[in-house]
C-alpha cells in the first residue's frame, strides 16, 4: 500500500480533547481513551469515524456513555458510525509492554515503562486518528504499583497525585497545548532526577529535570548544561521562549533512534544524555549537546508549529537540524562544526541521493514512514533551509522565521507554508528555489575558469542526475560563495555570492593581471558536487591560504580525492603516484606544522576522505581497491611524516585533560597522529597506543588508543581489550564501544571477531544500541562488509532476517548498505543482490524491510 502526498484529505473528524486513563503493569496495561470528537467543517462530512489501530483490539466501545456494538474493523482500524456532529467516544484496550520488542507505542525498558509515538506509535496504545493534523488537548491519569513505578510522568504539568490501595499510587497530568498524538508521552519507573531551573526572557520560572536510573545521575550535568544553553540560545537566536512551567527529559536504554521531542517530556536514548570524562568521548559530549538542543528546539519547530502530514517531515526535521547545527556552532567552533556537518552529509546523504532509495526532502510517496527518517529529510533538509539563510542574510532570514512562527503557531503546516513565510518575511523570490523540495539527487556543477586580459570568466554547468521516478530534472538555483585569489599576495578582494540558476551560465570578474585561483562553494554554501579539474599546486595554495576554513578543508580533501580516484582508476604510473603523494605529504606537513592553526581545526584538515565519499566519485567502484589505495596512502604518510607525527603526538600527550577547546584539540590530533604512526610503523604504533591506553584519564584517549590497537595484530591488542571490558563491565554505553571498536577495526580477522562477538554473553538482539554497536560498525567497515568472500554481505543479510521480526525499524536501517550494489564492481554486486533476494524471499517481512528491499532490488 503506497501512500501519496497528492492524496491528502483533511480529517473528517477532529478530536479537540482526549482523556486517557492508564492502569499500568509491565506485562499488562489497561488503557481507557475518552475522545471528544467534532465533525470537521473542512472535512468530507463522513459519518464514519476512523480510528487507527495497530496490534490492538477494542475491549469496549462506548459512544456518549453507552456501549455500542455496531463498530467494525477495517484492517487494524476501528470504524465507528456517528449520527451527530459532536460525540464522546470511549475505547478500552489492553497491552503487553514487556513483549513489545518493536519499541513503538508503550514498551518496557529495564523495568520501566515508556512510550515512543512518532510517527505512528500512538495507534499501538489506543485507537485514534493517528495523524499529525489532528490536534488535541490531553489529560492523562495513570496508576500503578508505587514500589515498581515510583515516578509517574506525562506531557505538560502534574495536576494531582495520590496514593491508592494495595501499594498503588496515581498521578494526573494536563498539557494545555493542543498537540498531535505523535507527541504524546508517558513514563513510569524508578528514576532519579538532576533538577535545575531556568528563567525565561519573559520571566517564567521553569523546573528542569533530567531523569535517569539510580546510579546514573552523576553523568547528567553536561546534558543539563546543554539544555540550559539551548533554552537561552533559542531566545537569542530565534526569539523562541519556553511555554510550560516544567521540562522533563528521561533517558532510556532501549531506544530505536536518538531522542524524541514529546511536549514537555522528551525521551532520550541514554547515549545522548549520559556523559562524564571517564566514559564519554569528546565526540559523545558534542552529540549530547547537539541532540539535547535538537529536541528542545522542536518545542517550536515541530510542536508549536507541527506538520500537516508526514510528507512534510522536513518542515520540522530539516529546520530543527539547521537550528541545532547553528547552536552547536555558537557553543564551539563554527568552522569545525561546518566541516563536520558537511562530512556527515557526504557520507550519509550523498549515497542516498545517488542510490535506489533517493527521494526529495519532501517525498511524494511512501509505504512505511519510518523509512523516511533519513539523512535526506534531516541533513539535506537543513542544507536547503541554510541556503535560504545564506541568500537572505542572517537578519532577514530571522524576519522570515519570525513570520513563520507567528503565522502558523498552533497549526499543522506544510513545507510550502515555510517557504512562503521566508519569502514574505525575508523578501526573497523562492519560486524556482522550491525545486529543492521536489527534486531528488545531488546537483553536479562543472566549473571552468578562463583568464583573458584582466578578466577571469567562470563558466558553470549544472546537471541533476536522474533518480527513481524522476528521469528529467530542471535547473536549480544554486547559491555559491566564491572568491578569487591572487597567487602572489595570497589574498582576494572580497567574497561574492552568486546564484547560479540556469543549466549553464558565465560569470565575469575584473581586475586580474594574472590568472587567479578560484575558491568556490565556500562554507559549502550549496549541497552540490563541484567538478573542477585543477592542478595540485592550486589545491596546495588554497589548503595553505584560503581564509574560509571550510574551503581550506575542501582543498585538502580535493588533493587526496583527486589522487586516490586517479589511483583506483588505474590512471597513475609510478612517477605520477610519487608526485601525487609528494604534494599530499607536503600539504600534510604544512598542516602539522602551521602554528596559526588551532588543534581542533588542524584535526579536521588531517582527516582523509571517507571511502564511501571516494566511491561516490566513481560510477562503479571496487571497494577493495579504494580501501587498499587509501590504506597505502596512510602508511606512506605515516612513514614520510614519522618525525613530525611523533612530535605532534608527544606534544598532545603532554596536555592535561580539560573540556576546554585547546585540550580537546590536543586529544583529537593525538589519536589522529597515532593512527598515521601505526599505519607507517605498526610496532611503534602499538607501543605508543598501549602507552596512551594505560595513561588515559579520559575516554577520548582510551577509546582512540584502543581503536588503533584493535586494528593491529599485536599482543597489546588482547590485553587492552580484556582490560577495557573488565573496567567497564555493566556500563552499557561503554560496552557498546567495546563491541563497535572491534567490529569497526581494520583487522584481517575482523569477520571472525564479529562472529565471536555475536555469541558473546553481552550481545543481545533486543537492544538497538547493542545491535548497532556490533553490526552498524561492521556494515560501515570496508574490511568487514566488502570482504571479497561475500561473508560480510551474508552477515548483514542474516542480521536483517533475524532482526526483522524483533525490531523492524532497526532491521530496515541495515538494508541501504546492501542496496548500493549497482555502484559496486560486478562480482561483489552479484553477492549483495543475492542477499537482498534472500531477504525478499522471506515469507513474512515487515513493511519497513519490504519497502527498502524491493526498492533496492529495483
Ligand atoms: N522526531 C525525532 C527527532 O528527530 C525522531 C523520532 C523518529 N522516530 C521514529 N520512530 N522514526 O528528534
Ligand atoms: Zn528531530
Automatic annotation (TrEMBL):
Domain Aminopeptidase N-like N-terminal: 86-183
A family per Pfam: Peptidase_M1
Sorted UniProt keywords: Aminopeptidase, Hydrolase, Metal-binding, Metalloprotease, Protease, Zinc
Leader sequence segment: none
Taxonomic superkingdom: Bacteria
E.C. number(s) listed in UniProt: 3.4.11.2
A Gene Ontology BP annotation from the UniProt entry: proteolysis
Name of this protein: Aminopeptidase N
Organism, scientific name: Novosphingobium guangzhouense
Amino acid at each position: 500500500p503506497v501512500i501519496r502526498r497528492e492524496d491528502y484529505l483533511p480529517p473528517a473528524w477532529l478530536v479537540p480533547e482526549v482523556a486517557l486513563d492508564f492502569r499500568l503493569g509491565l506485562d499488562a496495561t489497561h488503557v481507557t481513551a475518552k475522545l471528544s470528537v467534532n465533525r470537521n467543517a473542512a472535512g468530507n462530512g463522513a459519518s464514519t469515524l476512523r480510528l487507527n489501530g495497530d496490534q490492538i483490539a477494542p475491549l469496549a466501545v462506548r459512544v456518549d456513555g453507552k456501549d455500542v456494538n455496531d463498530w467494525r474493523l477495517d484492517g487494524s482500524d476501528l470504524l465507528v458510525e456517528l449520527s451527530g456532529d459532536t460525540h464522546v467516544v470511549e475505547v478500552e484496550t489492553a497491552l503487553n509492554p514487556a513483549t513489545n520488542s518493536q519499541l513503538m507505542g508503550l514498551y518496557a525498558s529495564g523495568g520501566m515503562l515508556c512510550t515512543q509515538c512518532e510517527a505512528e506509535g500512538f495507534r499501538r496504545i489506543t485507537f485514534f486518528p493517528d495523524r499529525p493534523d489532528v490536534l488535541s488537548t490531553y489529560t492523562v491519569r495513570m496508576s500503578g504499583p508505587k514500589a515498581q513505578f515510583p515516578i509517574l510522568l506525562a506531557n505538560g504539568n502534574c495536576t494531582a497525585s495520590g496514593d491508592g490501595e494495595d501499594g498503588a499510587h496515581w498521578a494526573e497530568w494536563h498539557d494545555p497545548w493542543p498537540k498531535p498524538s505523535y507527541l504524546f508521552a508517558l513514563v513510569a519507573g524508578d528514576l532519579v532526577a538532576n533538577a535545575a531551573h531556568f528563567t525565561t526572557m519573559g520571566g517564567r520560572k521553569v523546573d528542569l529535570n533530567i531523569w535517569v536510573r539510580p546510579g546514573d545521575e552523576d553523568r547528567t550535568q553536561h546534558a543539563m548544561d546543554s539544555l540550559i544553553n539551548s533554552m537561552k540560545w533559542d531566545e537569542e537566536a530565534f526569539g523562541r521562549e519556553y511555554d510550560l512551567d516544567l521540562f522533563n527529559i528521561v533517558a532510556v536504554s532501549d531506544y530505536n533512534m536518538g531522542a524524541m521531542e514529546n511536549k514537555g517530556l522528551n525521551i532520550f536514548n541514554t547515549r545522548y544524555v549520559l556523559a562524564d570524562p571517564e566514559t564519554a568521548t569528546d565526540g559523545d559530549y558534542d552529540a549530547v549537546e547537539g541532540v539535547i538542543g535538537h529536541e528542545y528546539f522542536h518545542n517550536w519547530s515541530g510542536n508549536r508549529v507541527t506538520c500537516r502530514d508526514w510528507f512534510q517531515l522536513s518542515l520540522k526535521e530539516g529546520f530543527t537540524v539547521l537550528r541545532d547545527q547553528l547552536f552547536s556552532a555558537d557553543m564551539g567552533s563554527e568552522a569545525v562544526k561546518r566541516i563536520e556537518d558537511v562530512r556527515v552529509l557526504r557520507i550519509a546523504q550523498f549515497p542516498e541521493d545517488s542510490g535506489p532509495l533517493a527521494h526529495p526532502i519532501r517525498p511524494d510517496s511512501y509505504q512505511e514512514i519510518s523509512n523516511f527518517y533519513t539523512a535526506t529529510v534531516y541533513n539535506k533538509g537543513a542544507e536547503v533551509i541554510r541556503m535560504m539563510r545564506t541568500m537572505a542574510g542572517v537578519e532577514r532570514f530571522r524576519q522570515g522565521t519570525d513570520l513563520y512562527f507567528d503565522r502558523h503557531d498552533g497549526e499543522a503546516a506544510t513545507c510550502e507554508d515555510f517557504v512562503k513565510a521566508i519569502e514574505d518575511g525575508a523578501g526573497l523570490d523562492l519560486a524556482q528555489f522550491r525545486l529543492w523540495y521536489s527534486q531528488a539527487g545531488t546537483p553536479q556543477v562543472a566549473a571552468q575558469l578562463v583568464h583573458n586580459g584582466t578578466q577571469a570568466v567562470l563558466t558553470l554547468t549544472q546537471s541533476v542526475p536522474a533518480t527513481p521516478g524522476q528521469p528529467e530534472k530542471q535547473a536549480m538555483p544554486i547559491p555559491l560563495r566564491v572568491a578569487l585569489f591572487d597567487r602572489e599576495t595570497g589574498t582576494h578582494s572580497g567574497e561574492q555570492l552568486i546564484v547560479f540558476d540556469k543549466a549553464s551560465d558565465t560569470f565575469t570578474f575584473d581586475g586580474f593581471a594574472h590568472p587567479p585561483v578560484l575558491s568556490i562553494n565556500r562554507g559549502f554554501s550549496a549541497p552540490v558536487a563541484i567538478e573542477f579539474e585543477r592542478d595540485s599546486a592550486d589545491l596546495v595554495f588554497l589548503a595553505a591560504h584560503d581564509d574560509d576554513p571550510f574551503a581550506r578543508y575542501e582543498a585538502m580533501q580535493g588533493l587526496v580525492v583527486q589522487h586516490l580516484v586517479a589511483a583506483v582508476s588505474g590512471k597513475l604510473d609510478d612517477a605520477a603516484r610519487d608526485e601525487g603523494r609528494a604534494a599530499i605529504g607536503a600539504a600534510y606537513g604544512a598542516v602539522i606544522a602551521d602554528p596559526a592553526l588551532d588543534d581542533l581545526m588542524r584535526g579536521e584538515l588531517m582527516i582523509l576522505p571517507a571511502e564511501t565519499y571516494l566511491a561516490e566519485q566513481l560510477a562503479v567502484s571496487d571497494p577493495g581497491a579504494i580501501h587498499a589505495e587509501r590504506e597505502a596512502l596512510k602508511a606512506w604518510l605515516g612513514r614520510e611524516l614519522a618525525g613530525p607525527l611523533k612530535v605532534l603526538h608527544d606534544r598532545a600527550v603532554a596536555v592535561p585533560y580539560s573540556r576546554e577547546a585547546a585540550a580537546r584539540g590536543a586529544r583529537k590530533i593525538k589519536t589522529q597522529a597515532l593512527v598515521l604512526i601505526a599505519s607507517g610503523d605498526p610496532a611503534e604504533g602499538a607501543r605508543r597506543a598501549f602507552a596512551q591506553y594505560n595513561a588515559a584519564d579520559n575516554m577520548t584517549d582510551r577509546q582512540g588508543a584502543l581503536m588503533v590497537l584493535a586494528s593491529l595484530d599485536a599482543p597489546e591488542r588482547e590485553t587492552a581489550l580484556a582490560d577495557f571490558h573488565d573496567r567497564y563491565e555493566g556500563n552499557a554505553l561503554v560496552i557498546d564501544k567495546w563491541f563497535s571498536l572491534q567490529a569497526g577495526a581494520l583487522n584481517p580477522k575482523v569477520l571472525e571477531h564479529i562472529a565471536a562477538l555475536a555469541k558473546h554473553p553481552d550481545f543481545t538482539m533486543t537492544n538497538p544500541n547493542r545491535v548497532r554497536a556490533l553490526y552498524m560498525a561492521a556494515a560501515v567497515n570496508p574490511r568487514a562488509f566488502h570482504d571479497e568472500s561475500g561473508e560480510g554481505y551474508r552477515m548483514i543479510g542474516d542480521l536483517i532476517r533475524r532482526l526483522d521480526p524483533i525490531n523492524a525499524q532497526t532491521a530496515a536501517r541495515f538494508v541501504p548498505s546492501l542496496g548500493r550494489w549497482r555502484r559496486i564492481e560486478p562480482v561483489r554486486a552479484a553477492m549483495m543482490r543475492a542477499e537482498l533476494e534472500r531477504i525478499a524471499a522471506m515469507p513474512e517481512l515487515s513493511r519497513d524491510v519490504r519497502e527498502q528491499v524491493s526498492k533496492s532490488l529495483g
